[in-house]
Amino acid sequence: MQLNKKLLAIIGKRFPAIYDVIPHGPQGGVRVALNPQPLPPHELGAAVADEFVRHAWVAERGGLDMKALLRDLDDWCPTRPKIPRLPPWWGPFPEPEPRPEWFVDYHLGFAARLSAVATGTRLDETLDQAIDRSLAAIEAVKL
User: Fold this and answer.
1) What angle do CA 61, 66, 70 make, to 5 degrees?
2) For an engineered disulfide with 109, which of 27, 46, 86, 94 has Cβ 3.0 to 4.6 Å away?
3) Cα–Cα dist 48/24, whole Å
4) Is the pTM of this model over 0.85?
5) What count of other Cβ atoms lies within 10 Å of the Cβ of residue 30?
6) Which residues lie closer than 8 Å to 76 by C-beta, 6 or more apart?
7) Residues 51/126/78/109 CA torsion (nearest 10 deg)
8) Any alpha helices (H) in 35-122, and if so which ranges?
9) Rounded to whole angstroms, what are the CA distances from 105 to 60, 69, 89, 91, 133?
């Protein structure tokens, strides 16, 4: 939900306690947008896993074939030397050549988030395949 400064100022005049929730007043979130920082690798892996689950769920609900989603799994959880293909609006990628430890942390975050999802449907098979691929990528990394 996008709120503008004027609306927050009006709300703040009527209910000053709102500034207990928004500590810097109406301009609170703007400072973060000035200097976006890359996510730590395990958090990035978990965020990508969330998107993967969302796409898989929509594909299942739409009656689409999961094979198409699994063909793109190399974009979601790549093996070295490839890097994940992130949407351009996700912000900066940490490094042009991530270190092997970065990949291990990324895949641990990816696999951990997927393992927390249990749907009880055929979607579980797709998620299990993604977890297996991510664990294989971890084993392939030579530290």
Assistant:
1) 135
2) 46
3) 31
4) no
5) 10
6) 48, 49, 51, 52, 84, 110, 130
7) 60
8) 41-61, 66-71, 73-76, 100-115
9) 29, 23, 22, 19, 15
